Amino acid sequence: MYTVKNYSKYGQTAPSVIPSFDTLPDSAFIRESQLVQSPKRPDSPAPLPFSAPTLWRKVKAGTFPKPVKLSDRVTAWKVGDVRAWIASHCAAQQVGG
Q1: What integer pLDDT is reported at residue 66 of this predicted model?
Q2: Where are any strands of DSSP class E within 1-97?
Q3: pLDDT given for residue 26 in this prediction
Q4: Rounded distance, CA 50 to CA 30, Å?
Q5: Contact predicate 55/47, CB 8 Å
Q6: Burial, 29: exposed, middle or buried (Cβ in 10 Å; 0-12, 13-18, 19+)?
Q7: What's the pLDDT score for residue 5?
């Protein structure tokens, strides 16, 4: 888990800690910044081992679940869809050896 910083400049209150990917329910939504490793936040954990551009290439190629548009400027993935992709990807690698 990691702490939210600079939230008050938007006039909003934030939780002191964002839950880790493992503790979120399958019905929750997760944004790109929480899915992939960012050079701007090297200390924040990310469940996917690739960059944001690679994530979008995989979405475009149909090899990663499509995100859900929550509003004009907010796009997120269902945690359950991401977990299913991770599980199938790991299973395919174990079979492929």
Answers
A1: 97
A2: 2-3, 17-18, 29-31, 68-71, 74-78
A3: 94
A4: 16
A5: no
A6: middle
A7: 46
Q: Which of 4, 11, 62, 6 is nearest to 33 (CA)?
A: 4
Can you say how many angstroms the Cα of residue 79 is from the centroid of all Cα atoms in its chain? 8
Structure tokens given for 7: 């939230």
Coil vs helix vs strand at 28: coil
Whole-structure pTM over 0.85, yes or no?
no
Name the residue with tokens 């790991």: 90
In sequence order, the 6+-apart residues with CB closer than 8 A to the CB of 67 are: 32, 59, 75, 76, 77
Residues of the chain with pLDDT under 70: 1-18, 95-97
Q: Which two tokens stand for residue 78?
A: 């269902």
